[in-house]
Amino acid sequence: MKSLIPWYTIGLVVAWYSSNIGVLLLNKYLLTNYGFKYPVFLTMCHMSMCSVLSFVAIACMKVVPVQHIASKTQFVKIAGLSVVFCFSVVCGNVSLRYIPVSFNQAIGATTPFFTAVFAYVMSKRRESWVTYVTLIPVVAGVIVATGGEPSFHLLGFIVCVSATAGRAFKSVLQEILLSSEEEKLNSMNLLLYMAPIAIVFLLPATLLMEDNVFEITVDLSRRDSKMVWYLLFNSSLAYFVNLTNFLVTKHTSALTLQGIKFEALKTLVKGNAHASGHKHVLGNAKGAVAVVISILIFKNPVSFIGMAGYGLTVVGVVIYSEAKKRFR
């Protein structure tokens, strides 16, 4: 049985990669190539499916034990996190309308920079000076990538930076708001409560910002039946991104293979948990794979300077991750 465990874990990592990259590329396809220019409604579809599948997985299939909200105060905190979460996801989807996946991923790799800034401003949490120095190539890489991006779009850039900052802000805020043992929720239970709250905010935003989107979606579905399947599959993938991330983190926490500990994989995977706020090598490899696949599929123009900038950012994030471990 032990020999089967690592293969199960590898399968989970592959599923995590596939769902992450799949939802990113399908979002890009729907919002640009397919012409479905409604990122807020698309996000609401994601949250609706997350609500349904979270309930099925936790209440019916017992994937994880149910964790109940303990108080009104905790509910308010979760609602606040949900608003920030909505903001970051919507901004991320909006950015895909205007900029290619490769540039989107380059900007997204700067999450550690924003996390460090918010951690210091909001909780006065300081890192060593060496750790802060390693953030220089992270930011410099995006500056270089921006200068060399053939498909640069100012609005897309601003919105993507906002999405990245929103993800970092959410991770720091979550640490602060749900810090006590009584209020801590695992990522799956947190999603169970956050997703329905997100819909409450996204529905009026959709009606106000995207006129007649429901009628347009129905009309598109009548003319092209694949539209319904695209939305259902895309929304399901959005849930499986969260599920596989949770399962990968859980199943790599204490595994061994032929006497060799999975500490490296454990560290890499945990770097992608929202609570830590930064990505390690595994997450950046995922981003690199997404970039390569997106270029092959969408044929967006790239430049050597742009790719060099993205590479510099990834290297900076890896160095930053190592510095955090060594200079705590």
From TrEMBL:
Keyword Transcription regulation: no
Sorted UniProt keywords: Membrane, Transmembrane, Transmembrane helix
Pfam family, one: TPT
Highest rank taxon of the organism: Eukaryota
Cellular component terms per the entry's GO annotation: membrane
Topological category with respect to the lipid bilayer: Multi-pass membrane protein
Compartmental location: Membrane
Keyword Magnesium applies: no
Domain (Sugar phosphate transporter): residue spans on this chain: 12-256
Positions of transmembrane segments: 7-26, 38-63, 75-96, 102-122, 190-208, 228-248, 281-298, 304-323
Main location: membrane
Record protein name field: Sugar phosphate transporter domain-containing protein
